[in-house]
Amino acid sequence: MELKMHIPASRQVVEAYGDGGFRVTGTHYQGSLLVTPERTFAWTVTRFEDLTVESIQPILDMGRAELDILLIGCGERMNLPSKAVREACQAVGITPEPMDTGAACRTYNVLIHEDRRVAAALIAV
């Protein structure tokens, strides 16, 4: 699916998702991703069951100093992350928001457009 929105060039934006990958700020990525306002990097999680505290550690390391919200794109449908994942996010001042991956992509773009401090952990669909 193609997503279009005017966002400052300095921000990462999810332009498309599907077919097992994403297009973020003009770059195609295969597989799952962690996306922050300043950077995008590959994420080893390929299915929701693999989502652990360790898998989101790069986001947790950013903590309250850089982020307020972590959108969790759970794949084809929304699932509730483990209590450990939710507590780890909250311990560093980040609110975890699970949703299906498509909704997470769209919500991330809206929040970036509003200049919110958001990251997205996106399981490829």
How would the blueprint of this fold be written?
Layout: E1 14-18, E2 21-24, E3 27-30, E4 33-35, E5 40-42, H1 57-66, E6 69-73, H2 83-91, E7 95-99, H3 101-113, E8 118-122
Parallel strand pairs: 6-7, 6-8
Antiparallel strand pairs: 1-2, 2-3, 4-5, 4-8
- What is the number of beta strands? 8
Number of domains: 1
Q: Do you know the CATH topology?
A: Hypothetical Protein Mth938, Chain: A
CATH arch. level architecture: 3-Layer(aba) Sandwich
- Major sheet attributes: 5 strands, mixed
The gross shape turns out to be globular
Low-confidence stretches: none
Structure described in brief:
With 125 residues, the chain is an alpha/beta fold.
What does this protein look like?
The protein has 125 residues and is an alpha/beta fold. The chain has a single domain (14-122), classed as MTH938-like (Hypothetical Protein Mth938, Chain: A). 26% of the residues lie in helices and 27% in strands. It has 3 helices and 8 strands. Strands 5-4-8-6-7 form a 5-stranded mixed sheet, with helices on both faces. Strands 1-2-3 form a 3-stranded antiparallel sheet. The chain is globular.
Give the tags:
single chain, 125 residues, alpha/beta, Hypothetical Protein Mth938, Chain: A, five-stranded mixed β-sheet, 3 helices
